[in-house]
């Protein structure tokens, strides 16, 4: 490999280039910092990235750099959210499973791909499967690949591999992936997790996200048997179930016997467990999030969250009103794929109220809010007050069910809104026990 400093490597970026940065917990921050240092000599560099976990704002996200760097986020995170909110960038909408194809077809044109990869193996191959999700198609499409060759990145098996001869410029470093650990679930998170765990059968294949509610759900699965994993993010919660044998992948049809993910984010102990572990395999999201592959696994279970849910079951998960907060992510892919699975179940899980006391079950979505999961797809909705199933219910019945799991102090206003919206049919329902 052609080793050089980060500043030397980033001279390969030219004005007008589209530059991709790998995400998850392995964002190549050293390369981002080097690019930001060139702000005076660059113009209209288009920055593309997805789900990012960092310790602060991206180095190029400063208002004074607005003519140098334009953010085109594929999944907006805290490192770039304020920059976009200020109008210096925007979101490219797209189902996560579709984005790899858009990159490979150059509809999203990547000129330079910046990755964070392992040391090469005995055959000269470096693994960057810790975030294969969008990085793999970006590397395949780019004319220039700049890599942080990082002794602290685990070597993970899967398709996001690159031979050292294909790396245009290499920067040697020892920069561990972000250590992501969560404390014990709160009382509310534990209640939500318990409701979901009760609905998950033995032999189910899980897609589960990151945070307190997913961890609480996984805590409730310790006595389950023969679970499988086919998900986006491999986390500490699933790592513990893999260690204990609860997740053995014996009932899966796609990649039986192996846990499937597109990225890994967790503790150092988890990274050590999956390093050179052939029982885990990582693919880009064009594979992991493909509904036709998800549905192959019997009893596929998808667990996702929401910013707010209206009384008909419309799910907003990407914006707070007009302000873009994240993106569709894999919610649609897994909600659809799991719903097609034999015995599959899908869940939207959330506290009944926000941390500021605003109800998350609402009469109508906020003006400008995006619908990530339509009312036609929603199955289970869960709060700390219970779990309701919407799929076989009419609109008035859905409203009654959702009100029953709203915060008690929000229910009276929601009842009035439902009666005004649905009329006599809701009045009849409200008279029933």
SSE topology sketch:
Layout: H1 6-9, E1 18-21, H2 29-36, E2 45-49, E3 69-73, H3 78-85, E4 89-91, H4 99-104, E5 112-117, E6 125-127, H5 132-141, E7 144-150, E8 161-163, E9 169-173, H6 187-199, E10 205-208, H7 212-219, E11 228-229, E12 233-234, H8 236-244, E13 259-261, E14 263-264, H9 268-274, E15 280-282, H10 285-288, H11 291-294, E16 300-304, E17 308-310, E18 315-316, E19 319-320, E20 323-324, H12 331-340, E21 345-349, E22 361-362, E23 380-383, E24 386-389, H13 395-404, H14 411-422, H15 424-431
Parallel strand pairs: 1-2, 1-5, 2-3, 3-4, 5-7, 7-9, 10-11, 10-16, 12-14, 13-15, 16-21, 17-22, 21-23
Antiparallel strand pairs: 6-8, 17-18, 19-20, 23-24
Q: In percent terms, what proportion of residues is strand?
A: 15-25%
What is the molecular shape? globular
Parts with pLDDT < 50 across at least 5 consecutive residues = none
Discrete helix count: 15
Q: Tell me, rounded to a whole number, the average pLDDT.
A: 95
Q: Quickly count the domains.
A: 2
User: CATH architecture of the largest domain, please?
Assistant: 3-Layer(aba) Sandwich
Secondary structure category? alpha/beta
Query: How many beta-strand elements?
Result: 24
* Sheet having the most strands: 7 strands, parallel
Give the strand line-up of the largest sheet.
4-3-2-1-5-7-9
- Which value, in Å, is the CA radius of gyration? 22 Å
Q: Report the helical percentage.
A: 25-40%
CATH homologous superfamily name of the largest domain?
Acetyl-CoA hydrolase/transferase C-terminal domain
Distance between the termini: 71 Å
């Amino acid at each position: 490999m052609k080793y050089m400093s980060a500043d030397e490597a980033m001279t390969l970026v030219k004005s007008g280039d589209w530059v991709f940065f790998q995400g998850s917990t392995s964002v190549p921050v050293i390369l981002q910092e080097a690019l930001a240092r060139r702000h005076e000599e660059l113009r209209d560099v288009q920055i593309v990235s997805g789900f990012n976990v960092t310790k602060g704002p991206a180095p190029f996200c400063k208002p004074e750099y607005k003519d140098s760097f334009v953010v085109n986020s594929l999944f907006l995170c805290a490192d770039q959210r304020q920059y976009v909110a200020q109008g210096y960038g925007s979101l490219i909408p797209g189902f996560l499973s579709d984005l790899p194809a858009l990159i490979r077809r150059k509809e999203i044109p990547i000129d330079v791909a910046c990755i964070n990869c392992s040391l090469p193996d005995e055959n000269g191959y470096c693994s960057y499967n810790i975030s294969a999700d969008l990085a793999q198609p970006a590397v395949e499409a780019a004319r220039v690949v700049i890599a942080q060759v990082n002794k602290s990145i685990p070597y993970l098996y899967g398709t996001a591999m690159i031979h050292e001869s294909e790396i245009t410029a290499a920067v040697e470093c020892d920069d561990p992936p972000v250590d992501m650990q969560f404390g014990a679930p709160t009382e509310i998170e534990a209640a939500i997790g318990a409701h979901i765990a009760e609905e998950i059968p033995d032999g189910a294949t899980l897609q589960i996200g990151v945070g307190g509610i997913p961890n609480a759900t996984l805590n409730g699965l310790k006595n389950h048997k023969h679970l499988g994993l086919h998900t986006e993010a491999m986390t500490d919660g699933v790592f513990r179930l893999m260690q204990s044998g609860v997740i053995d992948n014996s009932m899966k049809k796609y990649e039986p016997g192996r846990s499937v993910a597109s990225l890994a984010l967790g503790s150092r102990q988890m990274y050590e467990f999956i390093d050179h572990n052939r029982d885990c395999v990582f693919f880009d999201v064009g594979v992991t999030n493909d509904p036709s592959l998800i549905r192959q696994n019997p009893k596929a279970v998808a667990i996702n969250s929401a910013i707010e849910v209206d009384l008909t079951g419309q799910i907003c998960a990407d914006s707070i009103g007009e302000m873009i907060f994240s993106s569709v992510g894999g919610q649609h892919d897994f909600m659809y794929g799991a719903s097609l699975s034999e015995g599959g179940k899908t869940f939207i899980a959330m506290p009944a109220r926000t941390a500021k006391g605003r109800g998350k079950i609402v009469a109508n979505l906020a003006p400008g809010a995006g619908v990530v999961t339509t009312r036609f797809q929603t199955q289970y909705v869960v709060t700390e007050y219970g779990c309701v199933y919407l799929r076989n219910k009419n609109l008035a019945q859905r409203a009654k069910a959702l009100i029953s799991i709203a915060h008690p102090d929000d229910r009276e206003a929601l009842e009035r809104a439902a009666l005004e919206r649905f009329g006599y049919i809701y009045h009849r329902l409200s008279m029933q026990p």
